[in-house]
């Protein structure tokens, strides 16, 4: 069992930055690929970014490449999402997720994830 707790969300003006954190706890929490997803009101949950459990491989939604960066610190059992140049359309609830997959793999589909956090709200004002 892995527990995930997101933090760092909030209100920011367009063009600003935020860094989300996801603290993982539980058995061998560092042996999971980690991902970020988001869900805006009235829309389906969408993939944002993922990192393999070794940290050596990352994967991003094409539309977010260059603005968002995922990283992890296995010593702290924490994964981060640095979000720069934020736009109003980035407004959503952001979810952290953990996947029990091979060490080199960074899944991009929600169905591949085994555990989810409760989400943190990010609001970008224009």
A few lines on this structure:
The chain has no helices and 11 strands. The protein is mainly beta.
Oligomeric state of shown chains:
single chain
Main sheet attributes: strand count, strand direction, barrel closure: 7 strands, mixed
Give me the Rg, rounded. Answer: 13 Å
Mean pLDDT: 94
The percent range for helix content is: under 10%
Number of helices: 0
Helix and strand succession?
EEEEEEEEEEE
Describe the global form: globular
Distance between the termini: 40 Å
User: How many beta-strand segments?
Assistant: 11
Low-pLDDT regions? none
> What proportion strand?
over 45%
The helix/strand class is: mainly beta
Description:
Strands 2, 4, 5, 6, 9, 10 and 11 form a seven-stranded mixed sheet that branches. A four-stranded antiparallel sheet has the order 1-3-8-7, with no helix packed on it. It is mostly beta strands. The protein has strands at 2-7, 10-13, 18-26, 33-39, 46-51, 58-60, 68-73, 78-83, 92-99, 115-116, 120-125. It is globular, with a radius of gyration of 13 Å.
Q: Top keywords for this entry?
A:
globular; 126 residues; 50% strand; mainly beta; four-stranded antiparallel β-sheet
Helix/strand layout:
Blueprint: E1 2-7, E2 10-13, E3 18-26, E4 33-39, E5 46-51, E6 58-60, E7 68-73, E8 78-83, E9 92-99, E10 115-116, E11 120-125
Parallel strand pairs: 2-11
Antiparallel strand pairs: 1-3, 3-8, 4-5, 4-9, 5-6, 7-8, 9-10, 9-11
């Amino acid at each position: 069992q892995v527990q995930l707790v997101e933090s760092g969300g909030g209100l920011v003006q367009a063009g600003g930055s935020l860094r989300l954190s996801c603290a993982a706890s539980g058995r061998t929490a560092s042996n999971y690929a980690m991902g970020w997803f988001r869900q805006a009101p009235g829309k389906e949950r969408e993939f944002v970014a993922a990192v393999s459990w070794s940290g050596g491989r990352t994967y991003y939604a094409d539309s977010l490449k260059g603005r968002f960066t995922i990283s992890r610190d296995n010593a702290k059992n924490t994964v981060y999402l640095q979000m720069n140049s934020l736009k109003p359309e980035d407004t959503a609830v952001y979810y952290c997720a953990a996947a029990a997959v091979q060490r080199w793999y960074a899944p991009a589909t929600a169905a591949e994830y085994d555990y989810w956090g409760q989400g943190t709200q990010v609001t970008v004002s224009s």
